[in-house]
Amino acid sequence: MRIIAIVFVVLIHTDPFQRINAYGNMINFGTKTISRFAVPFFFLTSGYFFAPKTAHHNPIKYLPERIVKLTSLYLFGLVLAAPTFLGGQLVQAKFADQSLRATTVSSITEFLDPVELLYYGTSVSEILWFLPALLFSLLFVSFVTVIGKPSYVLPVALCFHLVGLLGATYTMFVDIPFEIRDALFFGFFYTSLGYTICVRSWEPSKKKGRLLLGFVSLFIVLQFIEFYALGYLLRGEPFGSYVYAPSYGISTALLSTSLFLFLLSRPTLFADTSLPTWGTYAVGIYVTHPTVFAILQDFRETLESMGYAVDSMIIWHLATTPATIIGALTIYLLAHKLRVIEIGGSHLPGEPWLKTRRSK
């Protein structure tokens, strides 16, 4: 399931058919709306597997292991993305006849913004925000567990998530003057939800699988209705005039949870296929795809500046998502082959190579 979810994550970023025309915007609204389950799914999964090792034991003993793994993944993503994004900005500066030195200094300054770099994870690429968010979400879960009880985790996280909903989707009620797509207001809730499902043994039986699948279908429809109403109906805007794409809504939690529970009721689903094997590459595709997508965007903008309207071509929109996934997987496998990282092991850039050198 991980590889399927990561495809939907990439779809969120590649924006297929957006801006071609109204119908293209409608299609993009549909793909984004359906895809919103993907990021919560990874938070849920992480919280679920975090629980057995921490719920009845001191989380401090296991937490450092997770911190090291997530940090190494984040560093790998930054090492790939920073030169690519800097190069793209320098090319734009060159075309705009701007100072390359000033562009370099301002870009590096933005990259090193401590809050954006360490907490929000958006200083280099906004796509990489998930890794710091998951790290801090696990820290929040551990903190509440240590000072209270495992049963306190979900209620506390829900309170913060409700604030996040007001700031992300239901902005007509109150103005939240800070970023809410982060660990505290988003990741903490879904990580806590997965954690609580495990701690309280909410795993459904196989008999409830059909019912849960029905709920999944129902909540997909409900999410379409929620986002359509918020993005077009209440704003008085024609459907397809633009793409309304909030990070999450009320129905997102219902859809993500019902899908996660359905998968728990079918633990052998896809077991006889190649999907579990491909799933081992999911995290690598996530970490490397911002770099590939940035290169494709720069290539598109270069062609556009030369008079080739590729952004209005259907073939470009059909090709961008698979090209991003294939390119990301290729880079990931190449990094493994060159011992820059180790699939299934350390993702700290260069550590596998150093280990090989030391063993000789």
UniProtKB/TrEMBL annotation:
> Is this entry keyworded Transmembrane helix?
yes
Bilayer-crossing regions: 33-51, 72-91, 127-146, 153-174, 180-199, 211-230, 242-263, 275-295, 315-335
**One MF term in GO for this entry?**
O-acetyltransferase activity
Q: Which GO terms describe its cellular component?
A: plasma membrane
Keyword Transmembrane tagged: yes
Keywords assigned by UniProt?
Acyltransferase, Cell membrane, Membrane, Transferase, Transmembrane, Transmembrane helix
Q: Which GO terms describe its biological process?
A: enterobacterial common antigen biosynthetic process
| Lineage top rank: taxon | Archaea
Topology within the bilayer? Multi-pass membrane protein
UniProt domain Acyltransferase: residue ranges: 1-332
State where the protein is found. Cell membrane
Protein name according to UniProt: Acyltransferase family protein
Native organism: Natronorubrum aibiense
What is this organism's lineage?
A: Archaea, Methanobacteriati, Methanobacteriota, Stenosarchaea group, Halobacteria
